Every structure is written in structure tokens, then in C-alpha cells.
Amino acid sequence: MHSCMANLGARSTAEEALRGISLRGKTALVTGASSGLGIETSRVLALAGANVVMAARNTAAAEEVARSLREALPRGAGILSVRALDLADLGSIHAFAKAYRARGEPLHLLVNNAGVMATPRGTTAQGHELQLGTNHLGHFALTMALEPVLRASAPGRVVTVSSGLHVRGSTERMMETLRSDPSYQKRKYVPFDAYGDSKLANILFARELANRLGPAIVAFSLHPGVIPTPLSRNLGVGGWLFRVFGRPFMKSVPQGAATTIFGATAPELEGRSGEYLSDCAIARSSSDGRDSEAARVLWKESERLVASTA
Question: Which DSSP string do the residues of 134-188 spell out, in sequence order?
Fold first, then answer.
């Protein structure tokens, strides 16, 4: 791992990772903004002066969060607005992007933050396995639908939250899910394997996105750390034990959002598009995560699936 800044690391907070950088005049979009890391990411971006679009499936919860943040943010902070977005439904994504484009708003920073983790077997509205469909295909479709806005607003960044558990991902298994067995009818479904596949896809997506949108738009994926957020709600008793006894090894939510803010703002990341980040530094993903050919194949398969339901 190559440290980017000596004074940033595993225990840095999102505000510390910002390092006083101003985002005044910039517009950011954060998915999954109604809970966990999405709240802190939205708060710190607004604190830096960015106007933040908080996209969430549960808009009532997101509106309550936004109201609370507005009350706490200082004068001069960016504007927070809430919009409905369900990443498990490509129809919702296309409608969101169409409305966004129609407003004529710029987009300088896209934070693909939302995600589901280790869910029981399920599918998206279009019949794709829920974790790969939400965590990867949903964000792929959103980014592609907003590409014209990103290009028109350049320079910009796309930051996608992955996980250290991408090491459980398998390119071969992921491709089988995309191509021939989207809802695990023919294979045993293992929740954490499917989660690993979706997080590996996030890393490969960022690598290929860097090739396709660069150099004016840079892209990064990242591991936020292990954080006690609602993401672990599907883990049952195991999740409860994990949160209780694993706490000494966990990050707080402000610490968990630090690498997202680092990826979104750090000037020293210019020229490093496509990198995987962890602990506010450039890190090394699994060998599958560094497979450029797999990234190209994943892109083509994702394009095919998204186009078929557009």
C-alpha cells in the first residue's frame, strides 16, 4: 500500500480527509444517502460547500435525515435535496436520470455508495440476483445514464464504494450470474459469495470506467473499512455478535466515510484514475480486481443487460 498523505490513515475521519478543500459551486450525487455512510458523506460534502443530491429508496427517511443535517450545518454550507432512487429497479434508475438531465443541473461528483449485504436469495425488479443487481448493475446503469451530464460538467469524479470482501468474489461465478443463472436457480446461493461478486464488480467497473471516461473524469473504488451500519442487518445473530465483539476492530461512521471523501477530493489522486483505495490511501485489490480483461468483459455484459431493459 502506498500512503498518499502521512497524516491520513485508518482512523482519520471524513472531515479530516476533506482537509479544508472547498467544493463551493460543485454538485454531488450520493446514493444510499438515508443511512450509514451515505449520511456522513452527504454531510461532509455539503460542509465543503457542495450542493448534494441525496438519492434514496426511502425518501421519507432521507427527508428526515436532510432536515436534521440542514439544522446542524453552518451557514454557507451546500444545499441538500432528496430524490427517489431504487437501485434494484432499472426503471427507477432511468426515470431518475431522465429527470436529472431535464433539470439541467451539473454533476461534478457521483458517489455510488448504496448497497445491500449478504441478503437472502432475491432478485431485482428485472430478475437479476439482488446483490449484484443492486450494488453493481444499478450503479452501472445510473452512471451510464448520467454520463452526458458528467461529461458536460467535467472535470469530475466517480467514486464507488466496494469492500475488502471483494476477495470472496469470483469473476467466473459473477459471469455465470450475469449470463446464464441470474437468480441462482442452478447453483447453491451463498450470501457472502454473492456479496463478494458484487463488490469485485464495483472494482472492475471503476477500472474500466477510468479507461472510458478519462482523463477529465476520474474514477475510484474503495474499501471503507468495517463499520457497524444497517448494512449488516441481514446477518441475524451472527451480525449481532459481529457488531458486539468486533467493535474494537471497527471504524466509526465518520472514519468509514473518510476514504470516500478522500477519493472524492484528494488532489494527489489526479492521474491515478481506476485505483482501489483503503484507509485514505491507494491500496492493492485482489488479482481478480486487477484483471483488465475481466473489467472489459464485465462492462460489455453489464451494457447488454442494462440496454435490454432501458
Answer: IIIIIHHHHHHHTHHHHHHH-SEEEEEE--GGGGG--HHHHHHHHHT-TT-SSS-
